[in-house]
Amino acid sequence: MQPIWLSVACCVSVLVVHGYAAAVPTQDTFVVAKAEGENTEKSEKNTAEEPNVPIKLTKMQVNSEVSLRYAHTTVVTHVRNPSSRSQEATFHILLPETAFISGFVMTLDGKSYKAYVKEKEEAKNLYSDAVSKGTAAAHISAKARDSNHFTVSVNVEPNTEAEFNLTYEELLVRRNGVYNHAINLHPGALVPKMEVTVHIKESQKISLLRVPEIRTGNEIDATENDAHNAKAVINKSNDDKEATITFSPDLDEQKRLMEIYSDKIKESTTSTHNSDVEQSDNEKTTGVLGQFVVQYDVIRPEKGEILVNDGYFVHFFAPEELKPLSKLVVFVLDTSSSMYGRKIEQLQTAMKAILADLRSSDYFSIVEFNSDVQVHKLSETHEEVTAPNNDKSGSDFEIGLPGYIARSESASTITLPVVASPTNIAKAQDIVSRFSARGGTNIYEALNIAIDVIKKAYETNKTESSAAFDNTEAERIKALQPIIIFLTDGDATVGETNPKRILSSITEKNTGERKAAVYSLAFGHDADRDLLRKLSLRNEGFMRQIYEASDAALQLRHFYRQISSPLLADVDFIYPPNQVKAESLTRNEFDTLFAGAETVVAGKLEPNVRELASHVIGLCADDDNHYGRKSYKVKNEVKVSETKEYLPLERLWAYLSIKQLLDDVDAFDHDDKDEKRSEKYALSLALKYEFVTPLTSLVVVKPNATIPVDTVSADKPDTEKPSNTFYAIPLSPSPVHSSIGFGQTIPYAEVSLIGGAGNIAPEDSFLDTDNLWGHKINHFIPSTTAPLFTTAVPDSTTSESLEETCHLENYSWALNILNKKTNSLEFLANGKNVTLELSKSDTIPKASEGDSECAHSAGVGTPGEAGVCVYLTRCAAARDISVDEFRNKYCVVENKYAGVCCPKNKVDTEKPLL
Q: What is the pLDDT of residue 330?
């Protein structure tokens, strides 16, 4: 299972494609209701005589275009229904938590249906009546860590094919010296044709490129010691700036990988004693190949790299030749009762290795907490004996050793940090080896005392006569970079337990010149991830999940390596105000930059800028002073070319802006005015660039029916209700739900994004479509919970009314990209936002100088046949094309109107409906 820090890697997984003759759920998904009134001439023909032939997965293609670390991934799956009856096909994609879905198209029986992005409330307002007895929620556990599930179920007509095409985008983050691009291959069955292609295009030479053997996803990042994937083909360009990696496993190779994956999962399950993990890993592994990984890095200019194109810039910065800063690390470690057993053993193993990795110039302290808090005195290791407590009530007693709790320490008696000498490290390792689980979880007091440790260390160094430090050591302390590494596996149960008060108090206290960055580790699914995430976001750090598995100790060590070598402190990226729009800048101030990472800043240029200058300032280690630090400054200038070329700078800027704005939203309370501004701006960007985010919904459109979808984390615990729960309803009327739909029969479709763990139906169960409240539903959200999916009811502002106004009755695909407010078609083409006006006039727009010639796509006429650019409704051949086809071959009439390249023999062949 991949660790949380692999969330930056693009993970894709088509988990399984199921076929059904009726709406029967499986372990992987629920079908809420069966559509009634469908075309039964084909679907029921010869069903009594012929056994049903399952739907076949015929082809799977994954294509990743990675340009300047920005990955655009497309997953296309083809299925065929060879049966004489309609059957349901289910399409699953496993996405990284940090990815934004940016497009989804279903092609059913030759016709394409595109999804579009709407603000959540607006998506809900597309519907008026909730389905009072048909709103169900289902959760499945995931095989990969830190992921989201996207699921679509549709009805496939007899002897027809269906195609699912999903795209998502993500900025790859450099970690421990490499970018990781991981693709989970979970087709669910052998695929006659499977191909994975990763194309990398960088502005600098690719210095490292490796493709390790297929992995299970349980391992931490691959290294140079991992075996190379012999089936992967790598082709590099002559200038070493491009590379194409292809992987096309045949059926024999797929069988081999499936067997290896199954064996490794069983081995991992055997070595893990956590019931949740066993439940997840004991799921059926048939049809899982594993994780295809591409790792690479580039040669980077010494001063960083600034790329400018079409009004946007992106600044990549990753200094490498600097000496690491000395640091003051306070390890705040949970030893409450819930850590009993394997967890505390893994913590001990990891901490012994982490302590050994400390540099001789580092200082450190160990704060152990359960019901009480103890700052360990490393100079008195064997004298520290926990005091007995006769009160055995509540959680203040130790598992296996009742009646003992750790003693609390006041700020006045706090032990100061010690230098990471071999003697002190050995003493610390001895302390860690004697950890035992006991009591509750006093999170607030542990963090409060950890900050006191840091503050006291810096305050002590100001007093020259201090007995704690001599003058030399006081100077060393003054130069240390403060870091708190906070690990817990549960909620706050002792002392202050209100998360809001914990956050506000700790954030208020952790201020000043020596504010410590707080890096939080959520050990297992029971930790309060929301609290830890907010805590780190407010205190210059980040939160990571440590999964309960056999490699937990490795996960901890892997995480520590990411922050073990701070290179720069108090870093500021400065750009002249007359060159860059200040309000457009992404985050440009950073507490610390670490070795092996990369910092990215992006923004918009002011008009008519011909040169962009940047200054990066901060503090670095002094080469002449073992503990000292000095000023750091790098100036870089680049010319702004008037030549425009396609670079994903604008979308990279939008992605980074939205991510950071959403972090601001997560970090603070919802009544904060700045948070509201951040949320509003993030929403506007997500809608403009068609990104599915926590603020937006993906709306899948089929004739006369619409359904919004939200992503749900696959890492949610069983006991935690996801914040964006999956709901589903049928998209056509049924006897049970006569209010659904408009009374017109349409194909059944269920669309969902699912996640969580454990809330799944037994393999031998089925859903009673005549009684949706029946006991056969494994997990149910009552209709009193505001349902995400309700039924669309047309009104005067819907696309149905604009269809007549804009004469688009026969061009239903165009409704998917119709902006009803501006009366225009809006879409993304070649990385640009395109807006084409529609005419409400009965007089169809025509070019004043006549129709100009153009080349048209295969979807509009015969390939190679000459075409002409005409207004959309003049082209009869454009009625049955898809949005993608229009996007590729659109044209502009009279410099503003929506046109299409049309075969000459299809122009004005039928009078449009006016």
A: 96
What's the whole-number mean pLDDT along residues 251-260? 89
pTM score, whole prediction: 0.71
270-274, 525-529, 867-871, 880-884: which has the minimum mean pLDDT?
Answer: 270-274
Torsional class of 861: left (φ above 0), alpha (ψ -120 to 50), beta (otherwise): left
Phi–psi pair at 133, nearest 5 degrees: -130, 25
C-beta separation of 844 from 873 below 8 A: yes
Q: Find the helix or strand (DSSP H, E) in which 86 lies.
A: none
Collapsing DSSP to helix, strand or coil, 254 comes out as helix
Instruction: Report the domain count for the chain.
Output: 4
With respect to residue 762, please indicate whether it lies within any of the assigned structural domains: yes
Helices assigned H by DSSP within 83-138 = 120-125
Residue 516 shares a structural domain with residue 580? no
> Are 415 and 545 members of one domain?
yes
Q: In terms of C-beta density within 10 A (0-12 exposed, 13-18 middle, 19 or more buried), how is residue 155 classed? A: buried
Q: Residue 503: inside a domain, yes or no?
A: yes
| DSSP code of residue 502 | H
Q: Pairing between strand 517-523 and 543-546?
A: parallel
Query: Same domain, yes or no, for 714 and 836?
Result: no
| CATH number of the CATH domain containing 469 | 3.40.50.410
> Does residue 688 lie within any of the structural domains?
no
Q: What is the pLDDT of residues 299-314, one digit of tens each?
A: 999 899 999 998 999 9
Sign for the CA dihedral angle at 230, 236, 241, 247 comes to: negative
Distances (CA, A) of 761 to 135, 178, 374: 16, 41, 46
Dig out the tokens for 375 from the structure.
């700052």
* Residue 868 is assigned to a structural domain of this protein: yes
- For residue 107, the enclosing domain spans 4-293+698-791
- Helix axis angle for 673-689 and 649-667, nearest 10°, is 150
